[in-house]
Specification:
Layout: E1 2-3, H1 5-12, H2 16-32, E2 37-38, H3 40-61, E3 64-69, H4 80-87, E4 101-107, H5 116-124, E5 130-133, H6 149-158, E6 162-165
Parallel strand pairs: 1-2, 3-4, 3-5, 5-6
């Protein structure tokens, strides 16, 4: 797929945390029309088509976020650093505006993340947009890294949920 310079400039205006999803949506639209080159107009058309719904929603209550953390680590971590990073809009939460809110904070349910799918399905009914996989799931030094993180991420993305790896590290 070929992207014009103007199209790339339009794509750069999309918030970083949803840019990959936006890029895939534009490519899907253009591929469906039988073309291989993406123009600035294509990006604008997709933005209007897909973000028109998000724009209406955002005016009411902003981006809705859930944080998933490791079941084992939850025995020693109360989640303070995740909430502090969100409240201060730092690190992996830095791209969110003031209307963003955390609507879920839960553990994976133990390997292989058995609880995540059901809880995300439940939260989707309340407008869930993004799931952050807590930093503890990706750490390799302090805690054992989650051996199922790639599978969990893929499962959530197939549900149409944006996934961000990390919270406060």
């Amino acid at each position: 797929m070929q992207w014009s310079e103007e199209a790339l400039q339009e794509l750069a205006k999309v918030p970083k945390f949803v840019r990959d999803m936006a890029k895939k949506a534009v490519e899907h639209e253009v591929t469906g029309s039988g073309r291989t080159e993406i123009t600035a107009e294509d990006v604008q058309h997709s933005r209007d088509k897909y973000l028109g719904i998000v724009g209406k929603k955002s005016a009411k209550y902003g981006i809705r976020i859930a944080v998933v953390r490791c079941e084992t680590v939850s025995e020693v971590c109360p989640g303070v650093a995740c909430f502090k990073a969100f409240n201060q809009r730092r690190l992996n939460f830095k791209d969110y505006g003031p209307d963003a809110e955390i609507v879920g904070f839960f553990t994976c349910g133990g390997c292989p993340g058995r609880r995540i799918s059901r809880l995300v399905d439940s939260l989707k009914k309340y407008g869930l947009d993004v799931v952050h996989l807590s930093s503890c799931m990706g750490l390799k030094d302090t805690y054992p890294a989650c051996p199922h993180i790639d599978e969990i991420k893929k499962n959530l993305e197939t549900k149409g949920i944006k996934v961000v790896e990390g919270t406060h590290h």
